[in-house]
Amino acid sequence: MSDDNGDDRRQRQMDFILDQQAQFAVDIQLLKEQTREQKTIADLILAAQNNLTATMLTFAESVSTRFDRQDAEMTAMRERHDRQDARIAATTESVSQLSTTVDRYIKARGNGSNGQG
């Protein structure tokens, strides 16, 4: 009888070991599936990050191009403004000289009289 108890005990131990190995195999399979899923998710995140990086670079280049264009336009406007200021200054000087000449002429003519009297 003790041999039957020993055989039963060994059988239970073997059944326990086999159950544990089966559960371990299932757990390993689940871990492999989760690892594949996580890799897929990581790949998707990496692709999205690469896409976002490319989009940001394109945006930065666009902004830089726009700033460069606006800077060139501002420089051209300043140059036009400077040229216009120079023309205005020259015109102001010419008008001032003309006014001085007319004043001298009038004073030389006797304070506005044309000599008739």
Care to give the gist of this entry?
This protein is an all-alpha fold and 117 residues long.
Give a verbal description of the structure.
The structure is a single chain. The protein has 117 residues and is mostly helical. It has 2 domains: 1-30; 43-97. Helix content is 91%, strand content 0%. The chain has 1 helix and no strands. The longest helix has 107 residues, at 2-108. The relative contact order is 0.03.
Could you give the topology of this structure?
Blueprint: H1 2-108
Large-scale geometry: rod-shaped
Structural class: mainly alpha
Fraction of helical residues: over 70%
Number of domains: 2
Quick one: how many beta strands?
0
Average pLDDT taken over every residue: 92
Order of helices and strands: H
Please tell me how large the radius of gyration is: 49 Å
Distance between the termini: 166 Å
How many H/I helical runs?
A: 1
Describe the largest sheet: none
Percent strand equals: under 5%
Low-pLDDT sequence parts: none
Search tags:
117 residues, mainly alpha, 1 helix
